[in-house]
From TrEMBL:
The chain crosses the membrane at residues 81-99, 111-131. PANTHER family: MITOCHONDRIAL METAL TRANSPORTER 1-RELATED. It is found in: Membrane. The lineage of its organism: Bacteria, Pseudomonadati, Pseudomonadota, Gammaproteobacteria, Vibrionales. This is Cation diffusion facilitator family transporter. Keywords: Ion transport, Iron, Iron transport, Membrane, Transmembrane, Transmembrane helix, Transport, Zinc, Zinc transport.
């Protein structure tokens, strides 16, 4: 029996949570022991993943729920709010790490990070990159933007450990370059903030009812051109709600058709769209006669036929 979207989300999130706890404890502990501020910052980043994991575990109970009387369009915006929370948390963590790094910049370290710190950073890179790839596969399986955002949270943790590893090994070989540890922590900050923006921006666009996909209109027009019963399609609008897209447009047919024939054409076209576009979950079609008063794309003429 195949797993439901909620089961996939929970499994991926719990696996990530266990890994995050272990890595955070190791990196913070080794960072304190060896005097690596960059490794401590990286460990705090790992702990921040636990908060986003909790948000996803709670939020997934709501955004996967079916439409009801109070939410006729479904609960997808709960996923949007979860993404905003993840993005804002990442930004806050990044700014906090950056501030601490700037304050420590130029100050002599209490100790020179050794090979133990380097080993901890390398382990983090390997584990988090593996988590990123696996979680991304799970996100694509169920088309979950929140799980996709969490996958990238894993990737930022892997990437942020890379400058830490470089700084630690260089600092170990050349102790006079102790400032590299603080520089690496600032690089971690930049990576975290970049990931925060990439998660926040699409979610904010969704809340402002921005177009869901710039390619949707082109695809709909192509599908309509391939259907001999459809004369014209215009006023195509799309909006995103979580990981799904809602679509509506005007469809023009031969005015000599009966209402029943026009309805059948629109229902067949709707089914075709739902099969072709995985993210689209609902389509509202406004049927109009192909007359001079209703045409938008094609120029008007005396001939009311589609040819």
């Amino acid at each position: 029996m195949s797993e439901s979207p909620v089961q996939v989300i929970r499994k991926a999130t719990w696996v990530g949570s266990v890994a995050n706890v272990g890595l955070a404890i190791v990196k913070i502990g080794v960072g304190k022991l060896t005097g690596s501020q960059a490794l401590v910052a990286d460990g705090v980043h790992s702990f921040s993943d636990l908060v986003t994991d909790t948000a996803i575990l709670i939020g997934s109970r709501y955004w996967t729920a079916p439409a009801d009387k109070n939410h006729p369009y479904g609960h997808g915006r709960f996923e949007t709010l979860t993404n905003i929370f993840i993005g804002m948390l990442l930004a806050a963590v990044g700014l906090g790490i950056g501030w601490d790094s700037l304050q420590a910049l130029g100050q002599p370290p209490s100790a020179t990070p050794g090979l133990l710190a380097f080993a901890a950073a390398v382990v983090s890179i390997v584990v988090k990159e593996g988590l990123y790839r696996w979680t991304l596969v799970q996100a694509k399986r169920i088309n979950s933007r929140a799980l996709h955002a969490n996958a990238w949270h894993h990737r930022t943790d892997a990437l942020s450990s890379l400058p830490v590893a470089v700084a630690v090994i260089v600092n170990y070989l050349v102790p006079d370059l102790h400032y590299l540890d603080q520089v690496a922590a600032l690089l971690v900050t930049a990576m975290i903030l970049k990931a925060a923006v990439e998660i926040l921006w699409p979610a904010l666009l969704e809340l402002t009812e921005a177009e869901a996909d710039s390619q949707i209109e082109t695809k709909i027009q192509q599908y309509a051109a391939d259907d001999p019963d459809i004369c014209e399609v215009h006023a195509i609008r799309s909006r995103r709600t979580g990981s799904t897209i809602l679509l509506d447009f005007h469809l023009l047919v031969d005015p000599a058709m009966s209402v029943d024939q026009a309805h059948t054409i629109s229902e067949n076209f709707k089914s075709h769209i739902l099969v072709k576009l995985d993210e689209v979950v609902d389509v509202i079609i406004h049927i109009e006669p192909y007359t001079c008063a209703e045409r938008v794309i094609n120029p008007c003429c005396d001939d009311h036929s589609c040819d």
